[in-house]
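Notes to self after the Tuesday call (sharing in case useful).
The group wants a holo model before anyone commits to mutagenesis around the pocket. I volunteered. Ligand is KOT. Logging inputs and output together so the record is complete.
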Amino acid sequence: MSMAQSPEPLDVDRERTRTGMSKTALKQGFLDNLFYIQGRFREVATPHDLYMAAAYTTRDRILERWIKSAQRYKTNQSRTVCYLSAEFLPGPHLANNLVNLGIVETATEAAHELGLDFDAIIAEEAEPGLGNGGLGRLAACFMDSLSTLQIPSIGYGIRYEFGIFDQTIEDGWQVEKSDNWLRNGNPWEIPRPKIRFPVLYGGYTEQYRDHDGRSRTRWVPAQIIDGVAYDTPILGYGVGNVNLLRLWKAEASESFDFQAFNVGDYYGAVHAKIEAETISKVLYPNDEPEAGKELRLKQQFFFVSCSIQDMIRLQFNTVGPLDSFAEKFVIQLNDTHPSLAIAELMRLLMDEHDMDWDRAWDITHRVFCYTNHTLLPEALETWSVSLFERLLPRHLEIVYEINRHFLDEVRVHFLGDEDRVRRMSLIAEDGERRVRMANLAVVGSRAVNGVAALHSELVKTTLFKDFHDFWPDRFHNVTNGVTPRRFMVVANPRLSRLISETCGSDDWIRDLDRLRDLEAHAMDSGLHERWHEVKIAAKRDLAAWLKHRTGVLLDPEAIFDVQAKRIHEYKRQHLNLLHIIRCYQRLKQSPNQDMVPRAFIFGGKAAPGYFMAKLIIKLINAVAEVINNDPQINGFIRVVFMPDFNVKNGQHLYPAANLSEQISLAGKEASGTGNMKFSMNGALTIGTLDGANVEIREEVGKENFFLFGMSAEEVSQRQREGYHPWEHYAKDAELKSDIDLINSGLFSHGDTQLFRPLTDRLVNQDPFMVLADYRAYIACQDHVAEAYRDHRHWTRMSILNVARMGKFSSDRAIREYAEHIWRTEPHPIDL
Ligand code: KOT
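Result:
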């Protein structure tokens, strides 16, 4: 039988049974996979074998939909969203895929009948930590929503061999361990050794005349590396659509390096292979501040070049000529990390596909859209011209040419305003000349968006003000969202069941606005009781988890007050700490006072090179040690640091929180998405008017949100006037005594210097105005404690928070991108 022929009907039937959704089919599939893939009998299988068999059994059921989606998209010539992101944080796949397939119950029963502990199997899966935090997790939520909304799409990124480091805590300090997530194999990915593209680096360019006598440019590289595709299927919820997460792995190019080395230089050739593979070896673990490393630039170009070449291949395979490339594809740049794609598409269109500048530019600037995720100046990517030229000589020429055309337009529009020209240039000329990637992204895209309403306003009025003056219509807002499948259904099955029972349907899972149906029951005492039980059960689970990992025992009746996110000064974990120290001092001064018990829970990683963030972790653990071991406190307040906060561990945290800490300095957090995850799970927020907090408060109602602190406007005014943190220190006796307590050495076994870098920075510089917001924060926390005493009222607020979270589904965000930015349509695949 040739490959093109369809299989015999008998085979089709057999296949259907093999991948059927019945309990019997699942059990059979599981035992088959355990035997034929893992090579094990049930009796000798390790927990990991069982997980692998369960994963393959689940994957088998996705494959058919995957093939069908690919075929349908191809015949329909569907417009495709290509989401380019240096980071993806999908979280463990198994539980999520079972939810999206709609077979959680059947699979649980099947496992039970086989005598297996299903929760233990699910817990076996390693975290695919291919991202740092919010930006990477957003990309994963968007992939889930794109599939659920049946929009053809491909997520393109890097298959890092080592993802974000695993965090352990030793003597209170963060210690980084390498994350070998592929060690035991990855059942979700399918290698595509034939989908392979050469990526060029270094060398020089030269002019030549083509056969028509036209002057052309040729890039003669010094190094060629291959990118090989690894595909992970992304199944939508309750639909037949499966989209693709296509991650590139770097390999030595046989055709180039092996020849380039002297014949017989075997070791040299092996060395070249190792060097090639370092490109996709490790994720850079920095959130926000830019590292400026050569390998990082090589990584960015690596995945961008493979992805654009892949799109061109797909264009030829489906539609045909490149003229309609911008109709077939839309490319969304997840921040500036992939913005080299703009220059790479220009290069490929001109140098490899014979287009002239104008036609190539017309396609390029119509195909790209760019999302900005931060205003922090230290996070804005720039690359030194000399490094750029050494690695990407042809792209530098193209960037210069884009800049020349662009600045000509600016000069015509703003006659004589050379200052503006200097600010808008793609090249910074003050000091060492640098390529400004954000400017490249704006100039090369037809749409630019921020990630929350406030952030998008600040993008227009501060960061890209000049660009907004020039192209006002190019700027948009799409407020972030998160997927309720992962963060409610997978993470919090108890609450999900309660919601479905209360609303009489589980439609809310695909249409989160339906959560509004809960409002009618917000006063219902029956619901209150069950709501409370669900929360308490999650708190018990978390308490057990934390006890096992940290030894700290939490009281499930206490307020679970949680701050989980990357550790960064702008996020102000140290403001939270000052409140904890205040509670401690109050209890020490009047041990018999009637304080509401609290468990303060932190989680988050610090960039390995970010000393101040690591010192904050140390201080959290130091404060925890003193408070948790003080007999006078008697467990009234407890402090615990959850090690290795990631998607997987976060799933224990969101369902258990009563209070969500969203306390960044206003104007600094672009959006935040943890704020949404907590609120969806019934936590109330204590927060500033920053990022998406503003919109969360609008939705849930100001009476159901604990607001404190300066607004972004007030922050900039204070900064303009001149901010003097030591005045707060001098004037506020309690603040002074909290900071002094840190300096006293109480938390550092008498060492009065250990935390000095942190306290000195607060008193003398305080770039994120912790001291200015301290008083308002403490007062607000006192309101929280009072509110918690009224259980009925608190529970009502909790229900209303959940009921009003519809806006923060990533489905809504993706619909807005599809309608206002991408102009894409759903392409349903029938089940
Ligand atoms: C990192 C380096 C350079 C530029 C941006 C970043 C970045 C921004 N990494 N994560 N973010 C976060 O992105 C989230 C998703 O939009 C936001 O919710 C969050 O506020 C950003 O800090």
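Two things stood out.
The longest strand covers residues 223-235.
The pocket of KOT is lined by residues 133-135, 138, 287-288, 335, 373-374, 379, 451, 480, 669-673, 691 (CB under 6 Å).
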